[in-house]
Write a structure and sequence with these properties.
Length: 127
């Protein structure tokens, strides 16, 4: 962990550069290698085809992100990482935000129970 999941409306596909956003997100998390193990970082996007935003009268768009992490980080570490990630999201969509109706949101989900993992990617970064 961490896992970063973006849900976005399909009306952003053409201009949203979602692959570019995922790279920026990973860069933010990789830069915090002392907080998040690089081998555990996952980011993904889910394009939404069935949705309704507000009253449905406009071509409204939205992006909702979730950062899922295991327990063990300080409140300061979580806040700093979430602030940095949300800043990246806002910056990434700044030009679209000026041109169209767009809602951006993000949540932090911290697991308090054990998670089950099987991952040999970590070994690549321990060398």
């Amino acid at each position: 962990m961490p896992h970063f999941i973006i849900e976005y409306t399909d009306n952003l596909k053409e201009d949203g550069d979602i692959p570019g956003l995922l790279k920026k997100v990973n860069d933010v998390l990789i830069a915090r290698g002392d907080t998040f193990p690089i081998g555990g970082i996952r980011s993904r996007a889910i394009e939404l085809h069935d949705y309704r935003a507000a009253d449905g009268a406009e071509d409204d768009a939205f992006v909702h992100a979730a950062l899922k992490i295991g327990s063990g980080r300080t409140e300061e570490q979580k806040k700093e990482a979430c602030d940095a990630l949300f800043d990246v999201i806002k910056s990434h969509f700044a030009s679209l935000f000026e041109k169209r109706y767009l809602a951006l949101s993000m949540e932090l989900i911290e697991f308090s129970h054990a998670t089950y993992k099987y991952n040999n990617i970590h070994s690549r970064f321990k060398k």
